[in-house]
Write a structure and sequence with these properties.
Chain A has 474 residues and is of the alpha/beta class. Chain A has helices spanning 21-27, 52-66, 78-91, 118-127, 132-145, 153-165, 168-176, 184-187, 207-214, 233-236, 238-250, 265-272, 278-288, 302-315, 323-333, 347-366, 375-386, 402-421, 424-430; strands spanning 6-10, 32-36, 71-76, 100-106, 194-199, 221-226, 339-341. Chain A has a 6-stranded parallel β-sheet, sandwiched between helices. The chains are: A alpha/beta (474), B alpha/beta (515). Chain B: InterPro entries: FAD/NAD-bd_sf (IPR036188), GMC_OxRdtase_N (IPR000172), GMC_OxRtase_C (IPR007867).
Chain lengths: 474, 515
Amino acid sequence: MSEPDVLFCLHFLGGSARSWERLARALDGVPFCVPVDLPGFGDAAGTTGYSVAAMADHVAARIRTRAPARFGLVGHSMGAKVALALARRSEDGEPGLTGLTDLILISGSPPSPEPIPDERRAKMLAWIDADPETRRREARAFVTANVGQPLDAADEDRAVDDVLRAAPAAWTAWLKSGGREDWGRWIGVLRTPALILAGSADADLGEDAQAALMAPHLAHHRRVTVAGVGHLLPLERPAILAERLRAHFGDRPGQADPDAPAVPPAYAALIDSERVNSRLREALGARAAPDDPAYRPTALDPVELAILRAAMGRVVPVPNLDLAARLDRRLASGEGDGWRFSALPPDADAYRAALRTLDAAARAAHGRPFVILGGNDQDTLLTLCERAELTVPDMLGGRLDADRMRFWFEDLRADAVRLWLGHPAALARIGFSGIGAGGDRDGEIADGLPGFRAVGLDSPEAWEPRAAYEGTAR
Amino acid sequence: MNLEGMRAYREDESVDAVVVGTGAGGAPLIARLAAAGLKVVALEAGPNFTPERFAFDETLADEIYWTMERLSGGSTPEAFGANNSGTGVGGSTLHWGAFVPRADARDLRLHTESGMGVDWPLAYEDLRPFYERVERFLGVSGAQAYPWDAARRYPLPPVPRNGPAQIMAQACEARGIRWADAPAAVVSQDFQSEDGPRRNACINCGFCHQGCRNGAKASMDVTYLPFAVSRGAEIRAEAFVHGLERGADGRITGVVYRQDGQDRRQRCGTVFLCAGAVETPRLLLHLGLANSSGQVGRNYMGHVATQVWGTFPNAVRMNRGYPSSLITEDFIRPGADFAGGYLIQSLGVVPLTFGNAAARGRGLWGKPLLDYLDRYNHIAGIGINGETLPCDANVLTLSDELDARGMRKAHVSFGYSTNENRLNAHATAVMRGLWEEAGAEDIWVLERVAHTIGTCRMGRDGSSAVVDPQGRSFDIDNLWICDGSTFPSSLAANPALTIMALSLRSAEAFLAEGH
Ligand SMILES: Cc1cc2nc3c(=O)[nH]c(=O)nc-3n(C[C@H](O)[C@H](O)[C@H](O)COP(=O)(O)OP(=O)(O)OC[C@H]3O[C@@H](n4cnc5c(N)ncnc54)[C@H](O)[C@@H]3O)c2cc1C
Ligand code: SF4
């Protein structure tokens, strides 16, 4: 596939359409960049409507005016959240927005509330409508604090000017509400191929935040961290950004069909044989079907689903099987297993609280989200759960105490293994012959089912499968 | 089961009896009362299945479990759902293991013997004729000479010993422990159910807990219930009872139930509550009825049901064969530092049950879990069913959480006391010893609680019991309870055969009054 015709470029808080000039030059019209001033910024400083939805409407109008057949959305920081909202509308088939081919998210503000420390937010709110001198000083401090290496003087001056051009009300609205709006569930999981870029020197929206809060919303994405860059990649390294875009258009993520655990041919033949009844064959077939990478969770939100995927990957480490999505579907169906530990809240709530607690524990212990930790560190935290030793104070985001985390982890292990062992690849792996004890028969009570003739030790029948580790030869 | 051509009663007609629940407690008496010519309507919360649904798969069998949520607390929280609670026409017998030892006579007078627990208000000899009737009617297979009861003869020859049973037999032999082919309510030969279907001999498929496809296992839907329907009983499925209407004299006049989203009422002369040891007390507590003793919900019991697992060099393939085909009752009175005792059975389980045990009970996860599951075909288990004494702290109450119908969920608090802990330690050592004797490697212990028992105890005195020795409420004379909830103590034996025997006994007592 080739480039989109047009890239609509949405700037960061305090930026403007001008922030994209150097990228546009580097791309040289392929694709053509259409930078947009968001309401309250740049030439649109006089326009109001600062919520994410209003900003998205503003951009949607621009897209409709140009009516491109194929377009990409490039969103930087604040602009990324607007781009994500538009992508959801596009994927939902909104007229005029349907040609979306790519999402480029640069140091993006995620669908869920932006993880910015309260003091920093308070400070930014304090000076934006102060006296001109303070404003100029602080605007420069803002720009310099957000880059890895100093910009050259002219670029820095233009960036400072952009900050000062912004309507203080727009600036304040983003910090107080737009950036805190929770669009996580509504945006859900997008199918559009995405490139997630982060600067290695970005404080709040660097690679960890992108992995934990952005990536879970994008079924087909590639994450790239650019060394030495802060929060303002389009200003800091436009040439590298252009290069990354071209690489993305040349090789979009998620083009291959999804994988699923393989069912060995001999076991597949048993499933197809008349020893297996149709209802079971159909169920095994459904369980063997590949999982949709863009599965949209309903009991959990996408960020929680990602934490669950990471934990599931440690509990039942089998590739290409999305046990987390299967569990979410079960939790959402409300079909419980008939009981729960009375110490825990209802199943879906318990899962949400526990996953958030696990993530908080990772942040407390390692300063990083659970999803990005190495397997050994993840295992260490899960082992603490198992021993009822995982304690995270409320103020650090702990929602369940150590005893409850132990109960939850017991439930998780059981849920994981039950889902895995329902899969025909699992049954094949352990050499389970039970599925072949009876096929279809008419009538309420079956006549003449084969069952097992010999049931004692060391008397397998010729057709019975063997466990994978024992080899297929008999 | 096939309900075509079933007799139908009008709701405004006052039938002789409404039976709530069609499991082990309900079905035998529905059959007996119908056979006596009474007008009987059975109301069952679960759906009506036919064995055609049963598909040799654990996940697909979820539909036969009671999945309305219960809250489990206490120091030994018990799992419900697939662990012990079924639903549907036939109740928990759709998925039960059909392992049917009789109660040991000594267990019924445990207090006299040991000063602990309680005595039952009836003796083994009161139960024996009913045990025999049930065993004959169901077609119980078992040892032709039962080592612990010379007088006992099972109607059918035993089902074949599977891998775990062979291992346990050898180990018992080596340690001088007596063993026998287990009594199983599974027909080892083709069997014509009286006024019911022809049931095919067990095919050794190993899926008893998921529903028997060929009628070999005695679930109520292929035994007592077809008989009941043939004698004029009506069974209404998906009918959840949530109210009892009473006249000015306090006697019950009708039963209120919800079916197809609508409340309906059936007028009746007598009600038999047979909804199991969780739903029966829950309903009574919900309605505030039959509880002048304050005993409803009290003395909840689950059996000590610890299992020991091990890995063998042999191809055990424990999924094959009737799962619990060997028994020893040598430890019903081990003469140790605790009252009562336990029986031991051999165990084979299907993969999800096994994986659940390994993940929950053994605490495995990650590669060790996958590696252990790989050994499935070489693993065999052994387990007990052990006495649990009634205890004040073990109680069923209504939680503040509501279910989808707006009824408060049951909260069950359960924990072992000293006697259970001692029994458990003894049994664990014995089972470990047997598995070591048998050459098992990688032996581990699964702590487990099984069955739902107690909460509406029977007794002779209305100030300390909910029902009399026949099962009749002390407070409301046309309300009877007939299910696992009336047990004053747990007994070492698995409960269902005794529940069925008591069910027939209640029916006879009711009929003897001239109904
Ligand atoms: C996996 C498993 C294996 C078992 N194996 C054995 C075994 O090998 N041997 C043994 O002796 N026992 C075994 N049991 C236990 C045995 O099945 C039960 O003890 C027995 O069935 C209990 O009988 P009951 O009448 O008390 O309740 P149930 O058989 O559970 O019947 C209660 C019925 O009432 C219905 N009901 C509940 N509430 C309402 C309401 N409000 N309105 C209408 N209907 C309602 C339910 O849907 C259910 O059908 C096993 C249980 C399980 C789960
Ligand atoms: S093992 Fe026998 S009794 Fe059990 S389900 Fe299979 S056929 Fe039925």
